[in-house]
Input
Amino acid sequence: MDREETVLVIDTDGSAVKIAWPAPDADRPEVLSRAIGGGRTRMLRCGKGILGFCDESGAASGQPANPFATKAFDEQGIELPAPLYGPVVFARNPSKGSIVKALTDAQAANLLAVTGARLA
Output
């Protein structure tokens, strides 16, 4: 049986959920939009092999800051130009090509450990 392809969503209260990551030709933009609460999606590199996606206008739309997701970037020594607001989706940055991939189990576990987030 194949393992379900998932990405990790870390919310502002430190709760985290794994959500199904559809095939590249499916509705990935819709999945991202729903997970971050709507708005325009902003992509940020979070160290080697990880991407973070958040609402570009999260602060303006009244979403609270996300100190948990911010820790993932801090751990990699990445200074963000502005705080992260609202839920953040973490996915795997492809080493070749441009198709964003699901996280490996090890990557998801590391993100949970580094951020202090907990699976709901």
